[in-house]
Specification:
single chain; alpha+beta; endopeptidase fold (from Nostoc punctiforme); 6-stranded antiparallel sheet; two-stranded parallel sheet; 8 strands
């Protein structure tokens, strides 16, 4: 007997091929089963997720967002419309303010013009009133001397001419022979003695030397209004009297100086 016969071998006993095959089949089956189970589990999990994300929930949220968006749009539109109304109202107010301003300016200008006209009229009236007493006194003091001292020369011809027209009609713009306006009569009277006078009252009131109403002589030109802006003229004929084409109601008349006191006088002859 060999000496090593009693020593147990350390090598593992060989497995038979049949056992190995059986074990491999079992392992493969187990793995296949696990794979199928895993796939089934994955499919089930996917199906569970699909079922959890329900469409009604998404639809409700979307509806809420749409409603909010529509409300915001309507609010913005209302805001724009309100702003447009405010802008239109502001524009109308500005136009009204401009019209009111122009109206106020026109009224102020008209008022100023009326006040200036009233002031001029008052000044002229005051001048005539202040002259009234002087003229009355002058007429009284000179009536005797003037009536006894007749006009001579060219002045006498002027006086005779205007007295010859007493009773003729007054017509604006007329220069004779049977109708006159005030300056037309004065111009014609001086034309008889070879003196050429301007046509209108304003110019005739400065056509000669200014003389005091207290120192009048027959033939002097009397004027009403300002020198250079007179609105009426006549001829002083002596004795505190004048002859003039007054208006369409009276025609050419002879009257006392205090009938309508003149503002001044000029001497041409």
């Amino acid at each position: 007997m060999s000496q090593t016969a009693h020593i147990r071998s350390h090598r593992k006993p060989r497995r038979s091929a049949s056992k190995i095959a059986v074990r491999a089949g079992v392992a493969g089956g187990v793995l296949s089963t696990l794979a199928v189970a895993g796939a089934s589990g994955t499919a089930t999990a996917a199906e569970s997720v699909t079922q959890t994300l329900e469409l009604p929930t998404l639809t409700a949220d979307l509806s809420t967002e749409v409603a909010l968006s529509a409300e915001a749009t309507a609010s913005a539109a209302a805001s724009y419309e309100l702003q447009a109304e405010r802008d239109a109202a502001a524009e109308r107010a500005a136009e009204l303010a401009d019209r009111n301003l122009e109206k106020a300016k026109a009224e102020a200008a008209a008022k100023k013009k009326a006040e200036e006209a009233a002031a001029r009229e008052a000044a002229e009236r005051a001048s005539r009133d202040s002259s009234r007493d002087t003229l009355t006194t002058t007429a009284a003091s000179t009536s005797g001397s003037n009536s006894s001292t007749a006009a001579t020369g060219s002045a006498a011809s002027v006086v005779a001419f205007v007295k010859a027209q007493i009773g003729d009609a007054y017509v604006s713009g007329a220069t004779g022979p049977n109708a006159w306006d005030c300056s037309g009569l004065v111009q014609a009277a001086y034309k008889q003695v070879g003196v050429s006078l301007p046509r209108v009252s304003q110019d005739q009131s400065v056509a000669g030397t200014q003389v005091s109403l207290s120192n009048l002589q027959p033939g002097d030109i009397l004027y009403w209004g300002g020198a250079g802006s007179a609105y009426h003229v006549g001829i002083y004929v002596g004795g505190g009297q004048f002859v003039g084409a007054q208006n369409s109601g009276t025609g050419v008349i002879q009257a006392s100086l205090d009938y309508d006191p003149p503002s001044g006088a000029v001497r041409v002859l």
